[in-house]
Amino acid sequence: MAAERRALRRLLIPRYNLYMIETIYKTENPKKGFSECYVLVLTSRPASERKVYGFMEEHGHWDEGFERFLHEVDSISTEDRLTHEQALVMYNTAKQKLAEKGFIYSFVPDCSRKKPQAYQLCELEAVSA
Asked: Is residue 127 part of a domain?
């Protein structure tokens, strides 16, 4: 019976990583490659069966010296036993800090295998401390 449950569980759990990706801007109509942004990523670690997670915050901005748009990782957490709940707290804390800096326009990928990836504007939820 236990072996059947494990086999069924393996069928129900996709082999790909569970992830959340969100790009946050200060403007409602950002220009990709020009408008300052932050990208928040929460993902399960490969081969962990959604038991271990990672969190990353990336800052994108135009650099006058290089005359190009740069992406720099501000923080990354890939601890051995970071749970989904712990990673989600990190994700939401970063999102709240960005909202306090004026980054309130959130875009998430609208992923579908049958069409190209598009981004859609999402409303940020009010978060109380």
From this structure: no
